[in-house]
Design a protein that fits this description.
This protein has two domains: 125 residues, MutM-like, N-terminal (N-terminal domain of MutM-like DNA repair proteins, Alpha-Beta Barrel); 134 residues, Helicase, Ruva Protein, domain 3 (Orthogonal Bundle). The chain contains six helices and 13 strands. A nine-stranded mixed β-sheet has the order 2-9-5-4-3-1-7-8-6. A two-stranded parallel sheet has the order 10-11. A two-stranded antiparallel sheet has the order 12-13. α3 packs across α6.
Length: 272
């Protein structure tokens, strides 16, 4: 599933092409399973800018209109000067640049677990209240982590990191990697997370983001691709997730467990 680094990569690749005017919109026969709200039609609108909040993209249109795009398990956006013919393209925006050139933005999603909401400004603001602090922003602090953990003492830290209403942007591989870099076992209960641990988790999050964002995101088999259809190289920075031997100590076999239904990886030597 695309997590914060992958969504950030897509945002950064789309942004330089904006603003554009949407001249037409094409939908696949099954696009209705992806479009969850449609308070406006993007056809004829100016697509002004793009932002990211956690793991979702905010496609900003004129007059406060916003398309919120969640990528699900296999979703992504493609950008091309020619019409996009890639299989599983469910929404395609045909656009015209300020210089008159054509450009196409296509939402591609083989498994169709993603979703798009075409909201007016009030609807978008209401939807976004479900997200907690974005873990790449200044609002995400050690005090924030500690206070959230104290409010939910019985939850395991790794599973807790996946809750978007607390930690917007963290997905499964990131959660395992954050715990690893912080030296904290993934099943440690929040009540046992100290203020010092919270600072370690903050610093670990920054390390994970730096490595994966700079590598264009992380691609696993059959997964995420950027706007050009290329795979991310962030896997080279992983220290425990999908690793046989811990890449922090370099000698301990990584253990895989299932925590709250999700594959979880940790080093029994480096994490306590």
């Amino acid at each position: 599933m695309p997590e914060l680094p992958e969504v950030e990569t897509i945002k950064n690749q789309i942004a330089p092409h904006l603003p554009v005017k949407v001249t037409s919109v094409e939908y696949s026969d099954v696009s209705s399973s992806i479009i969850k709200d449609q308070e406006f039609n993007p056809k004829g609108r100016e697509f002004t800018s793009i932002e990211r909040r956690g793991k979702v993209l905010l496609l900003n249109f004129e007059k406060g209109l916003v398309a919120i795009s969640g990528l699900g398990m296999s979703g992504g956006w493609r950008v091309s000067p020619k019409k996009i013919s890639e299989k599983h393209t469910h929404i395609q925006l045909s656009c015209k640049k300020e210089n008159g050139d054509k450009i196409y933005f296509g939402y591609v999603d083989p498994r169709r677990f993603g979703n798009i909401h075409f909201f007016k400004s009030i609807g978008a603001k209401k939807w976004l209240t479900r997200l907690g602090a974005d873990v790449s922003k200044a609002e995400f602090t050690a005090d924030y982590i500690y206070s959230r953990c104290q409010k939910h003492p019985g939850k395991a830290i790794k599973a807790f990191l996946l809750e978007q209403n607390h930690f917007a942007g963290v997905g499964n591989y990131m959660a395992s990697e954050i715990c690893a870099h912080a030296g904290i076992l993934p099943d440690r209960l929040n009540k046992n997370i100290s203020q010092k641990d919270a600072q370690k988790l903050l610093e670990a999050t920054a390390i994970v983001l730096e490595g994966t964002v700079s590598s264009g995101g992380t691609t696993f088999s059959g997964g995420y691709k950027d706007t050009t259809g290329s795979q991310g190289e962030g896997v080279k920075n992983l220290v425990v997730f999908y690793q046989e031997v811990c890449r922090m100590c370099g000698r301990t076999k990584v253990l895989k467990t299932i925590l709250k239904g999700r594959g979880t990886y940790h080093c029994p030597r480096c994490q306590k």
